[in-house]
Amino acid sequence: MRYFKSDNTAAVSEEILRAIADANHGVALAYGADRWSEALDGAFAEFFGTPVRVFAVSSGTAANSLALATCCPPWGTVLTHAEAHIERDECGAPEFFTGGAKLSLVGGAGAKISGDDLLARLTWFEPHVHGVQPRMLSITQATERGAIYTPQEIGVLATIARQRGMSVHMDGARFANALVAQRVSAADLTWKAGVDVLSFGVIKNGGMNAEAVVFFDPERVADFEFRRKRAGQLFCKGRYAAVQLLAYLQTGLWKRNAERANALAARIAAAAPELLSEAAATNQVFMKLGDTRIAALAADFGFYPWGPMGSGEARFVCSWDTPDEDVDALCAVLAKLR
Amino acid sequence: MRYFKSDNTAAVSEEILRAIADANHGVALAYGADRWSEALDGAFAEFFGTPVRVFAVSSGTAANSLALATCCPPWGTVLTHAEAHIERDECGAPEFFTGGAKLSLVGGAGAKISGDDLLARLTWFEPHVHGVQPRMLSITQATERGAIYTPQEIGVLATIARQRGMSVHMDGARFANALVAQRVSAADLTWKAGVDVLSFGVIKNGGMNAEAVVFFDPERVADFEFRRKRAGQLFCKGRYAAVQLLAYLQTGLWKRNAERANALAARIAAAAPELLSEAAATNQVFMKLGDTRIAALAADFGFYPWGPMGSGEARFVCSWDTPDEDVDALCAVLAKLR
Amino acid sequence: MRYFKSDNTAAVSEEILRAIADANHGVALAYGADRWSEALDGAFAEFFGTPVRVFAVSSGTAANSLALATCCPPWGTVLTHAEAHIERDECGAPEFFTGGAKLSLVGGAGAKISGDDLLARLTWFEPHVHGVQPRMLSITQATERGAIYTPQEIGVLATIARQRGMSVHMDGARFANALVAQRVSAADLTWKAGVDVLSFGVIKNGGMNAEAVVFFDPERVADFEFRRKRAGQLFCKGRYAAVQLLAYLQTGLWKRNAERANALAARIAAAAPELLSEAAATNQVFMKLGDTRIAALAADFGFYPWGPMGSGEARFVCSWDTPDEDVDALCAVLAKLR
Amino acid sequence: MRYFKSDNTAAVSEEILRAIADANHGVALAYGADRWSEALDGAFAEFFGTPVRVFAVSSGTAANSLALATCCPPWGTVLTHAEAHIERDECGAPEFFTGGAKLSLVGGAGAKISGDDLLARLTWFEPHVHGVQPRMLSITQATERGAIYTPQEIGVLATIARQRGMSVHMDGARFANALVAQRVSAADLTWKAGVDVLSFGVIKNGGMNAEAVVFFDPERVADFEFRRKRAGQLFCKGRYAAVQLLAYLQTGLWKRNAERANALAARIAAAAPELLSEAAATNQVFMKLGDTRIAALAADFGFYPWGPMGSGEARFVCSWDTPDEDVDALCAVLAKLR
Fold first, then answer.
1. What's the rounded Cα separation, in Å, for the pair A13 and A244?
2. Which of A240, B38, C63, D330 is most enclosed, with most CB atoms within 10 A?
3. What is d(CA A54, CA A266) in angstroms, rounded to the nearest whole number?
4. Rg over CA atoms, chain A
5. Do C11 and D17 touch (CB under 8 A)?
6. Helices (H), chain A
7. Contact at 8 Å (CB) between A301 and A323?
8. What are the contacts of A182-187 at 24+ separation with CB within 8 A?
9. Helix (H, G, I), strand (E, B) or coil at A303
């Protein structure tokens, strides 16, 4: 079976394992007082070209939920796309961490929110106590349908958000894939465009079990650290999370892995471009195959049918370590099935 | 500087790193559908001599809090020792995960709860809606002052708990240290004595970043799995947590590491037995040194003064990888300071 | 100014005030141990023709939220209409009381959910830990757009819900209005059709500050009482809430008041039937007036424009004590504006 | 049976009922936009001699919990007496409303906290993420054992609190009883001494079902109003709560009722002064009667044995409407039992 189910079925890059082994000597003070954890802020500041505060957590769900809980009061609401991971795939984690804040959903092709859609949705909220108040916008980069936001698009959304007193969160579970897909900097895609806090994904792109929460505004860190501890996300042996993040940034792993995954996806997309249901901008490929083709593929390939039952759509995800031959095989079959 | 601050400053055992490297090949289905995660129940069933359900989480705080949240309603209360980790060192995580259940504190020497103390504390609660209801007992094994509960002692507590409709949780952050300190089985210390759910510690005793929650009653798992996901504690690359737990059990690492740590602590205790403020049953040594001796030691040794300011007490913790020469050095100084 | 803003701007019926005065003598045991509170279960059992457990609370929001919290775990979701009061007008109270359960929205004309829409929405949820699980259905009777569910319609929804293991909640803030609008019994509209728990509205229909939560299944009461206390909704002087509910039922006030309010609304609807945007089944009238007519009316009448800005729709609500002359005046102007 | 169980078994003063009847005419805008609700801030400002923001809620538990939730983050802790109502009699409501903040208990005779005890307790908390952070002090006036804090005593506590960045909450369920027991002003007992937010009790002292939350610092109101709505404590027919508070203040009812209740308690205390286990400063009398006397009294008098089983202590509470003859009877029996 050749797997295209998700990039989270991949193994861990050697650079990560090596960094762990290298740090595995002697005593290191617990709970983030080790030298690797203490190097995080600096390493990410360099990557983003601005001072930041960075915290490791053990999953994307934890990263997203803690970020939201820090910036949204219980009586607030987070505007997000109806297909967002925080809405669909986290079993209510944002509601749990925020103490019951509501997610308010926005539509949009490619799982992307447009400025117009955001503005329209915001008209629903009135500044009185009967309804929850818009306090955050959360966008996913790359989106759950593989699309990317440009710096300009983010800027439009962030400007609207700021005018309404909302913070901007980016779920960057596949941030590296979105970044290498554009000729822009990490800064362009985040703080320069108005992002306040970023869930910086590592695991799907070669990491083992550490993601980062990146705050571009140090003031917002005020209660994050207490919430992280209280959520069981402050690790006693912090070095083993920190070195993953450091190796990911400092060896260029983020770039190599994302570029390879994106390139493999591009090959799949090119194998049957007329079947694409989304432009394949990053490492995810969405195709309208129809149920017959899906059934034919399912014997040899692991992948997810997508969307509502009977939609005939399928998703193929490439990871940093997807074998070339698996992509070859898929492309060959797709070419035949066209 | 020679460190005796905590066993969580230790490195990771080679057996753990090797198991991770061995599992790092190719695709593994995400979120616990990999073969290592699926082997957890069986491996722990063998270890405990009874069917169990086992789940990996990333910290002891997460293990404890999820276990409590599964068994205690928001209007319930968890009886625990006033010095318990869940009360003192988790920043309110149990309250967060349970939706605001209360911890009700019991005293007792050695951070141990006696049957009499438990019974006395239970008289405070009346079966009416004005007060929270006792629904869980949580004990720590080994305790926060290095003491151990015998199977008989646990049995007494569990019988009382059961008669009041309470579940029994054991915080086993140092379970292995407590186990090797007695000539009893893992079963004797847990389900045979009446424990319902165990936070099974691995990290302090050679692990990297995985602890286990062990349910001896499968019915109690009902909502645990949803709560785990919702807490950001279900890992997409589950194999890297699972293999840590498997290696820990199956290579005998738990035993080797705990025996060494305990033996080192025994040497320290023997160096100045008249200064001991607790019997050194496991890998923690508590000594009433007085502030002068503490100051003298602090130049060369890293350790925590303990208890309220001015108590003159100090805690020394040995880990699986504390260098022999560090223990030699500490013993020598202690002998001189007697 | 003549007011048609809401039935919650009305005064309190004399029957209610008299009952309060009658109970205002001497000592009554606190927290529901008074004889009026103890009579609630019996009085409601008679009204509904089946044994019930009944609890007074101080607002409809409290009634709804406590009912939901009792039947839906934090990782569950409550399916409800997108225009439901619990979604739009309670500032996230359901999320707060449930510990972060999610509301999942269903569409439908008249703010009513159809069986087909419910079935379609249920296909979104998969029985895995990544998503919240459908555990409750909440419908409003009469709906937020004045429509009513028939016993048959409720039965269809409840059957679907039960097959998916979901409880059925009815927000009956205007239950009496819905009941007198049909030739059916209170039993037909609730437990006989499959409703498990009912927020039984009193305040809008002549009461002062007590609503009732009615459980048709006594087993579900298990943790409600603790949650009520914990929410500050157990009143020490319980008699003053209980007598409101008793007088409401036992003097026939519920019927007289609801019939009058519905009749007044029918007169308004009849004044310009071609402008109606909803059938005026109960005491609410929705009309597509256009912004010009709305502006013309606003000088003399207090009412709410409805729906999104620019919709041109208006809502007129009659209460038990809306003056006949106010209705006359509104009808006259509407007739002129046709 | 003559009742001395609690002042919450009393009836409602005529002044309150009359005010309700007087307001019961015609339309009043909902949710606090009525003229009585709008008069609350002014009436309380006059009473306290300073601008305040005032909100009606339906129970003391709601008042306390909402006040705490407004000023204490989830990772904070509220220092309070071990016998405080918020700890012992609210079924965990503070934990629920705050999202899981912890109560940290302080001892002290008469259920009063001393400055020394507060300072000692504060040494337990360290400014790191492992433990909850002291953010509020909550004291009860009069205390759960009938004692009063003087302005000076409150000032000492508030100064300590302020130096640690903590807000000061006063649970004034029996505030009027404490006020008339001293020759001081309402201002002296609250904001002048450093109280930030007050649960202002009305129900026990003649009210029906409205208490007030009084903020002396308007900035703290920021999120209170959302939390109140979200807790189901914003009443649609707000006038019926507001008029209770207005009548209570403006007719001098608070004073008349409290003075009478205190005077009756003083008579009981004088009947057997050597049996007193607390000075009877307000309307509660605590006596060490021994189990024999308690049993003898129980035939004719309703009251609560107090403290742990076998303590032999009893509590007698007088209310504004306790019959003189009931007090006579109790005094006579106590005199005989001496």
1. 10
2. C63
3. 32
4. 20
5. no
6. 14-23, 35-38, 40-48, 60-71, 85-88, 93-98, 115-122, 151-163, 175-180, 224-230, 239-250, 253-271, 290-298, 324-337
7. no
8. A182/A148, A182/A150, A184/A150, A184/A151, A185/A49, A186/A47, A186/A48, A186/A49, A187/A48, A187/A49, A187/A50
9. coil
- Quote the CA–CA distance of B120 and D322 in Å, as a whole number: 36
Chain A residues within 8 Å of chain D (Cβ atoms): 31, 73-75, 99, 129-130, 133, 223, 225-230, 234
Closest-CA distance of chain B to residue D133, Å: 8
Return the sign of the alpha-carbon dihedral for residues D298, D304, D309, D313: negative
Distance in angstroms (rounded) separating the CA atoms of residues D182 and D200: 17
Q: What letter represents residue C216's amino acid? A: F
Q: How many CB atoms lie within 10 A of CB A333?
A: 18
Rounded to the nearest 10 degrees, how much is the dihedral formed by the CA atoms of B302, B307, B311, B313?
-40
d(C-alpha A104, C-alpha C85), whole Å = 15
CA proximity to B243, closest of B61, B20, B68, B43: B20
- H or E, element range at C335: helix C324-337
A17-61 per-position pLDDT tens digit: 999 999 999 999 999 999 999 999 999 999 999 999 999 999 999
Average pLDDT of chain A, as a whole number: 97
Nearest-Cα distance to chain A for C13, in Å, is: 26
Q: Taking a C-beta distance cutoff of 8 angstroms, is the pair D71, D169 a contact?
A: yes
The answer to whether the beta carbons of residues B259 and B267 sit under 8 Å apart is no
D19-25 long-range contacts, CB within 8 A, separation 24+: D19/D243, D19/D244, D19/D246, D19/D247, D20/C12, D20/C17, D20/C20, D20/C208, D20/D208, D20/D240, D20/D243, D20/D244, D21/C17, D22/D243, D23/D239, D23/D240, D23/D243, D24/C11, D24/C12, D24/C17, D25/C11
> Is C182 exposed, middle or buried (CB count within 10 Å of its CB: 0-12, 13-18, 19+)?
middle
Q: Which of D60, D232, D237 sits opposite C65 (nearest CB)?
A: D232
**Interchain contact, A92 vs B241, CB within 8 Å:** no
> Which amino acid appears at position D5 of this protein?
K
Here the tokens at position B152 are 């008989």
Q: Digits of tens for pLDDT over chain D (338 positions)?
A: 999 999 999 999 999 999 999 999 999 999 999 999 999 999 999 999 999 999 999 999 999 999 999 999 999 999 999 999 999 999 999 999 999 999 999 999 999 999 999 999 999 999 999 999 999 999 999 999 999 999 999 999 999 999 999 999 999 999 999 999 999 999 999 999 999 999 999 999 999 999 999 999 888 898 999 999 999 999 999 999 999 999 999 999 999 999 999 999 999 999 999 999 999 999 999 999 999 999 999 999 999 999 877 899 999 999 999 999 999 999 999 999 88
Q: Measure the CA–CA gap between C93 and C89, rounded to whole angstroms.
A: 9
**Length of chain D (residues):** 338
Amino acid at A203: I
Residue B220 has pLDDT above 90, yes or no: no
pLDDT at B338: 82
Tokens of C176: 């009496």
